[in-house]
Structures are given as structure tokens and as C-alpha cells.
Amino acid sequence: MLDQIKGLHHVTSMARDARQNNDFFTHKLGLRRIKKTVNFDAPDVYHLYYADELGTPGSVMTYFPFPNIGKGRHGVGEVGTTVYSVPEGTLGYWEKRFADENITGVSREESFGEKRLGFAGPDGDGFALVEDKADSRAPWMKGAVPADEAIRGFHSVSLRLKDGGATEELLKFMGYEEVATSGNVKRLAVKNGNGADVVDIESLPTAPFADLGAGSVHHVAFAVENRAKQLEVRKALIDTRYGVTPVIDRDYFWAIYFRTPGGVLFEVATNEPGFDKDEDTAHLGEALKLPTQHQHLRPYLEQHLQKLEG
Measured on CA atoms in the order 196, 95, 185, 243, is the torsion positive or negative? Predict the structure, then answer.
């Protein structure tokens, strides 16, 4: 069993409209946009990052807003719900806020003894807030939501799978342990993690497979401290016959990718070098940052990329 993985690093999803996406996360959810850059493989498409003040691993939600993308179809073989942690006793505040902001799909829930508020993103993305009194992580203090009610970071993700058995074994190999079961959902967690410690596996044997599109999670990333730890994980996965990519430089972290038995794309990302690599902490997410290979496109991109504000 591996011990290098410390919880979630980030979740990356697809969207249709960049301005709507930016408004949802920065205004309605009160997160900080920590990076405005572009897709490495499609530089005419933004890659937007939303998180706490510093972009701490375990708090980072990222999006590729493709203007002409079709709507995704939810099903098995995907991340079903991305769950954020909020302070105990704050769901009433969020319920009112969501009503005021016309957020859809809002429902009171309880899961594994935790109070939750489910809601939908602009493209039908599945989200929830869970009250976690033990979460001591600091929120973004200067956002649209008061600090006492603000999101702390991720709590968990849920994986919707035809058969969760093989993915459960993979997660256990990655250092997760089963901590609870409720109906068709099995909960796994990593000890001494970064706060975003939980993965739920929902087994839905008769459900249709998901189709990737707007509102779909593209991949979920797990955090390791540095490149040396990442290489240890990569070797262990390859030795276990997983097809793992070479290490890829994503400017703010190094990444490796592999497909799980249930069809979900996993990434293992480093905590280094961080999102302040190319801009001051006080101004994260303000300027358009481009990968080196796309710098020559700056005049075109600055003219043609959708304006996020105004």
C-alpha cells in the first residue's frame, strides 16, 4: 500500500461559458480565481482555477470552458458529485444564498451522518456542501461569502461506477482505507491527509455510461508532496500493470495520468511548485498566463478569449 498520496489535489471539469463559470465560482460560491490560463492542448480555450487564497492542494476546482461543447450526460464511469466542506451550522446560510442566486438542484441531504446541501452548477454539474466541524483549513477571506460561512476546500468526491470493486482495490493500493458503508455507497479515506481526504464509491450496476460534455468532470487529481514522491507512485502503478503517462509539466504542478478500472481518469499531481510561480500571491488569477509554447499566441488570445468580467 502506498503512503505518498495525501488526499485530493484538484478536480477538473468541462463548461460551456467562461464568464458564467467564473461568476458561479467567484461570486456565488465565493472562491478565489487563482489562475487564468489556457488549455495546453487547445490554447483558444481557457483553463480557469478556483480555490482558497493560495490554491492549496485539496481546494482547487478547475475548468475548461469550451464555447461549443454539448451538454454531458451523467451516468457511471465518472465523478458524480464534488463535495465542499463548510463550517458546522452554515447550511442555512447557504440555502438562503442559493435561493437568492437562483442556483438550481438544491436539496437537503444527510450522508454518513453528515448534513449536506446538494446543488447544481451552471451546466448541471453535481455539487454538495457538507458541514465539517473538524475542518480547520482557512477559507478565502476576501471573497463574496463571509469567512465564517465560507468554503474551506474539498471534502470528497463520489465516483459513480457499474462495479466499484476494482476501483476500490486501486484506492486501497493508493493508501485509502474503507471507513464506512451506506447502502450502495462505500466510503474510503486516507489517514493524516490534507483535509480533502474522502472518496465515496457509488455502485450503480444498471445505470448507463456517462458521456463527457459540459457539466462533466474530466479528471480527478490526487496530491503528492513533490516529484520524488510522484515517481515512487508512478513506478508502483506501472509495476501493478497500470498504463501511466510520463510526467507532464503543467507549470504549477507536475502530473501523471491513468485510467481506472471503472473508467474514471485519475491524475497524481505534485504540490510543487505552486500557483505563485509566475505571479504575486496578492494578484493571483488576475492576468492571463500562458504556457511557454503558447506565448506567441498572446495577441490573438487576448483579443479573442471571452472577457470574464464586465
Answer: negative
Q: How many CA atoms lie within 13 A of 158 on its CB side?
A: 23
CA distance 196 to 155: 5
Q: Given a cut of 90, is residue 211 above it in pLDDT?
A: yes
Separation of alpha carbons 2 and 276, rounded Å: 29
Dig out the grid coordinates for 246 from the structure: 510520463
Residue 198: which pLDDT band, with cuts at 50, 70 and 90? very high
Mean pLDDT throughout 83-108?
97
- Reading the block at residue 263, the C-alpha cell is 473508467
Task: Kindly tell me the number of DSSP H helices and DSSP E strands found in the chain.
Answer: 5, 16
How far is it, in rounded angstroms, from Cα 104 to Cα 119?
Answer: 6
Task: Report the first-to-last Cα separation within the chain, whole angstroms.
Answer: 50
Q: Hey, CA dihedral for 189, 263, 83, 142, is it positive or negative?
A: positive
Measure the CA–CA gap between 76 and 211, rounded to whole angstroms. Answer: 9
Ordered by where they begin, the domains of the chain are 8-304 (3.10.180.10)
Residue 120 — very low, low, confident or very high, per pLDDT cuts 50/70/90?
A: very high
What residue has cell string 450502495? 184
d(CA 268, CA 208): 27
Strand partners, 12: 62, 219
Reported pTM? 0.97
Question: What cell numbers appear for 212 in the block?
Answer: 463527457
Q: Chain centroid to CA 30: how far?
A: 16
Whether the CA torsion 145, 148, 154, 159 is positive or negative: it is negative
pLDDT mean over 30-49: 97
H/E element holding 65? strand 60-65
What is the Cα–Cα distance from 229 to 82, expressed in whole angstroms? 26
Instruction: Report the candidate in 196, 201, 97 with the shortest Cα–Cα distance to residue 144.
Output: 97
